Amino acid sequence: MFGERLKRARSAVGLTMKELAFQAGVSANMIKKYEHNQSMPSSGVLIKISRALNVRSEYFFRPAKYELDKIEYRKHSTASPKLLRRIKADVLEQAERWMELTDLWPNFPVQKCITPTLSFDVIDDYQQLEEVADQVRSQWELGSQPIVSIIDVLESKGILVIVTDVDTTSKFDGLQASIGTTPIIVISSKWPGDRQRFTLAHELGHLLLEGKLSASLEEEKACNRFAGAFLFPQNSVRRILGNSRKHLEPKELYLLKMDYGLSMMACVYRATDLGIISPAKRKEMFLLFSAHQWRNMEPGEPYPIEKTTTFKQLVYRGLGEGILSESKAAELLGMSVINFHRSRKLESSNADSY
Predict the structure, then answer these.
(1) In the chain, is it the N or the C terminus that has fewer CB atoms within a 10 Å radius of its CB?
(2) Tens of pLDDT along 263-272?
(3) In the 8-state DSSP scheme, what is residue 178?
(4) pLDDT category of residue 137 using cuts at 50, 70 and 90
C-alpha cells in the first residue's frame, strides 16, 4: 500500500526517484525500495518526502480502494507518457478523496449519476443532436438561457468533475473515466473558461451518446455538435442572430462569447450548423481570424474560468453535522490541522482561497 501511494504521488508531481531522493536526503535506491515495499522510511524521512510531494503523511497510509476505469484521453499526439502519468495520478488522488468523503456520509447529499432519457435509439444525422441537447436541457430544467456554471450542473447530476493543475503545456484536451458507477470528466485549470466549458460539454456528449451513434457519424464531430448545442441552444441562436445572415460582426461574436461561454469561433460554427450563415461565409470568417491571429488567442477579456466549491462545501457541511472530525476534514482538503482551523474560523485574510 505505502509503495503504490508513494509512486503515485511522485508521478503526480513529476519527480524522478533521484530527484525525490535528493530532497528526502536518501539514495535513489532507497526510494526504489520504499516503492517496492521492501523498506519503510523513518519518520524524519517521511516528513521530507511528504513536503517534497506536497501531501500529508496520512496520504501514504490511506487504503487504496479505487482505480480509474474506462480512461479516454482527448490529447494531442505530442502529449508525453510522463505528462499523462502525472495527470492520471493527480486525477486519482482527487477522486479518491471525493469517494472517501462519499463513504463517510450515511446518506451522501449528491445524487448518483442518472443520465437523461433520449428519444433516439440510434442517431444517424448530426441535426438530431440539436434535439438531443434540447432534451437534456429540458430534463435537467436548464431552460434556454446561458448556463452559469457547467461544473455545478454536472456535479449536481452525479458526474464528478476534476480540475487538474498538472497540464502546463496545452497538450492535453480532456479526459473521461469512471470509478465504479461514477463518471469522471477532467479539465485543466490552465485553460480559459470557454475552452473548459466546451470540453465539459464535449465529454458529456461522449457519455450520453455512447452506443447511440450510427457508423455513418464521426464520434468527435457528433460530440462537438452536441457541445455547441448544449451550451448555445438552437432557439437562442436564432433569437439572437436571426434565421439568415450575410455577415457576423466580430464584436457581436465577442458579446455572445461572454454571454454563453462559447468561443467566438464556436459561435461561427453554431451559425453555420443551423444554416444562418453559409459555409463560404464561415471560411471567410476563418480567414479573418487567422489574419488577426485570433485562432490561438481571441481578442478581449477571456471568459472566466470554471470553478467548483462542491467538495469543500460538503467537507464543511460534514464537519458542521458531526460526520467529520476537524483532522479528517483537514486531511480531505490537503491542509494542516493548524491552517484548517484558521480557515474554518475565517481568521486568515486569504480564507476565501482555501
Answers:
(1) N
(2) 999 999 999 9
(3) E
(4) very high
Identity of the residue numbered 232: F
Q: How far apart are CA 36 and CA 41, in angstroms?
A: 12
Full DSSP string of 329-342 = HHHHTT--HHHHHH
Greatest alpha-carbon pair distance for the chain in Å reads 72
Half-sphere exposure of 18 (CA within 13 A, CB side): 0
Please name which of 312, 343, 323 lies closest in space to residue 98, comparing C-alpha atoms: 312
The predicted-structure confidence for 46-59, as pLDDT tens digits, reads as follows 999 988 988 878 77
180 and 323 Cβ atoms separated by less than 8 Å: no
How does pLDDT run across 80-119, given as a tens digit for each residue?
777 888 888 888 888 888 988 988 888 888 888 888 999 9
Pairwise CA distance, residues 223 & 199, whole Å: 10
Hey, where are the domains in the chain? 1-64, 310-353
Distances (CA, A) of 329 to 46, 154, 271: 22, 24, 48
Radius of gyration of the chain (CA): 23
Question: What are the beta bridge partners of residue 294?
Answer: none
The answer to whether the CB of 147 falls within 8 A of the CB of 125 is: no
Phi and psi, residue 163, nearest 5°: -105, 115
Closest CA to 88 of 235, 186, 193, 219: 186
- Residue 33 backbone class (left: φ over 0; alpha: ψ -120 to 50; beta: rest): alpha
Q: Tell me: domain 1-64, CATH 3.30.365.10, correct?
A: no
Q: Of all helices (H) and strands (E), which one includes residue 197?
A: helix 193-209
Instruction: Determine how β-strand 160-164 pairs with β-strand 182-188.
Output: parallel
- Would you place residue 317 in the very low, low, confident or very high pLDDT band (cuts 50, 70, 90)? very high
Give the alpha-carbon dihedral of 283, 220, 67, 196, to 10 degrees: 30
**Nearest-10 crossing angle of helices 264-273, 250-260:** 100
- What's the rounded Cα separation, in Å, for the pair 93 and 68? 10
